[in-house]
Fold this sequence. Notes:
This protein is mainly beta. It has three helices and 35 strands. Strand 10 (about 100-105) and strand 11 (about 110-115) form a beta hairpin. It is elongated, with a radius of gyration of 26 Å.
Amino acid sequence: MGLTFSLAASGVPYQTGDVFAGTRGGTIAHFSSTGALLDTLTTGGSSYMTGMAFDTSGNLYATGFDAQNVSKFDDKGSLLGSFGSGYNHAPESIVFDKNGNAYVGQAGGSILKFSPTGGLIGSFSPQGTDWVDLASDQCTIYYTSEGNSVRRFNVCSNTQLADFATGLSGRCFANRIRPNSEVLVACTSLVYRLNSTGGVMQTYQPAGVSILFALNLDPDNKTFWTADQDTGTVFHIDIATGNILAQFSGSTSGVDGLTVVGEITAAVNAPPYTTSYYVRTTKSATLNAMGRALAQSQINLGIAQDSVVALLFRAPALKNGQYGVSGLGGFTPLSTVATLVEDFATGYYNSLGTNTTLHVRIVIATGNGITSRGGNRGNRLGQQRLGMVLCRTQQLQKRGQDIVLRFRRRSSNSG
């Protein structure tokens, strides 16, 4: 589980956007996003500090390359102790899955999987490993082996996969998967931006670099950070334009790893899978079937993340003081809309079978339209805009899972 002790830094709290540079001598430099040195974290040893990652509590984990360990720091930089055990081949990178388990990549050795408390729960032996990242499916490890390829390994099936990208220039090191499935990888003299199938989209080559070794994504999902292992220069680069937004010295002795508070990781921060349906009927069986079909489609595609579904109804309506929608063969009250949404959710969850990974959040929307008041007077209220239409909160229990349907009614009157 690891050794526990405490070695305090100056106690500077971490802020979103702060940059941590792993250096030599068992130390990690804590910078602001503008390059101001805020604190220095130390392991008390002399190791090269390479890959780093944060857990959901804000604790920092850092791999000690030649110390054969992973150090754990609290959210103010105090060393809490070591994390995990059994490292035997230079641990170089670390990444968390959405359940808080950690994968540690070792240089040329196995990938080790640890529970949130540091218990060893898995070991995998892909064809050479070094820097690792985990895809949103919670199964596919993208990794480099200090060659000219980005490789892949499935830790769920313990299977080597086809290489993601080959023929890159120079030796490749740190890589990060973006939420849109693009990949950034540092390859000695430049950084590659690869599309979701491994094709080269763009390259970045700051002047005067020796070995671009470390790399991480900024929380803004528009920029990234990389660093020169030899000179210690840290670069902040715009992904779209390639412009260098900032650069500063992370260490005169070189930088071997980088992380950013609030970093984007595909395994944890992937955007939800989204889809939408136009609702053209009030038949419960039809909505139920739509939900079942969506669940089966996601299972067949191997989707392993939460999803958002928009159920799109027609124009909002108000009749005899009751809100609803029109265009479904007449006026449909919100109580019926809620039942139809419930039917969709029930069909979805009934089709999941033993799958406990998939969850859905349902958004109910209407178009903008003219809402009329019915009844004897039949006079017009004017334009009403109902954005998210919601009339009640309903919880369904299915195999211990909660399906929560959140409804919010928002309207504005004019005229």
